[in-house]
Amino acid sequence: MPDIRVIAAEDVGEDAEAFFSEFGGEPVIVTGVRDHLAGLSWISPEELEEWFEGETVTAVEAESQERVELAGEEFFAGIKRGETRYNMVDHTVVDTTLGHSLEVPSFLSQNWLADPDEEEQELRNYEKSLVATAARGYTPAHRHEYGFSGWMYLIYGLKEWVFHHPRYSQALYDPMFREFYDERAAAARPEEYLRRFPLAELVASYRVEGSIGAGDLLVYPGGWIHSVHTLEESFGYGGAVLNGHSVENAMRCWLLERSLGMAGSLDLKAFLKRKRERLWGVKAPEEPAAACRDRDLDRVEEALALCEEWEARFGGTSPHSSSHD
Ligand SMILES: [Fe+2]
User: In terms of CB atoms within 10 Å, which end of the chain has fewer, N or C?
Assistant: First the structure.
């Protein structure tokens, strides 16, 4: 099984376009980012317990995978004691003092989610969020909603990741119970898993894996299924990215979610249309004529065209509409 590609921060440069062209197609680990984000060295488990005293944090309950709200000091004291019951994965820090001190590497800063219209302010929460997990914590296989690209930077700790390419989604997804094939669960309940995922064994070994430690950054494209094993108590932050490079992939994932009944509340089509008007002053599809035309505008047009093609067959992007109604 191949390892996740590893590159050094100094080989990446600052440019988002260059980074996503070269590394945007598969998960990649960027090492040595710490030197670039030196201002974070103050952060330690003790500091965090203090920092979050009296605050509420969002975490995921390991058993049910349900989102819960907890007192901050209780959560951080728990992971320090090695309790794996709660896992912080997407506690947003956008517009907070802590959030302002957590820098986003410049090659990830081209992000349409960071600057949405008034109608989509909640999307800003995706830009930057905290990650904190006790040693031996485990996040079962899942895929992030809407097909945004994801990244995680570890300030301390050690996490091991296993990814599957979206092309294996059909074998690794049970549409009836809307659940992904998870290796640990499969080992515990082999007969049930064989019934629910008859093709999983054919593709389960086509995985890419790797681990990140302090100062490492993992970046991965939308739609990739992944599970995460936390080997050492870990703390870091991460976020979601949508830009010209990821927009077509995001639209594919978003439409697939509609097909599979996994639809969230985001209307990606409306979002992109507003983006097109706001960034380029374009209200309706235009012929890609001018040579100086922005490449990202073409990418948005392509994503919208894919959406129209889907709608022409299935009658709309609302979760329950169908041309046979
Ligand atoms: Fe994830």
Answer: C
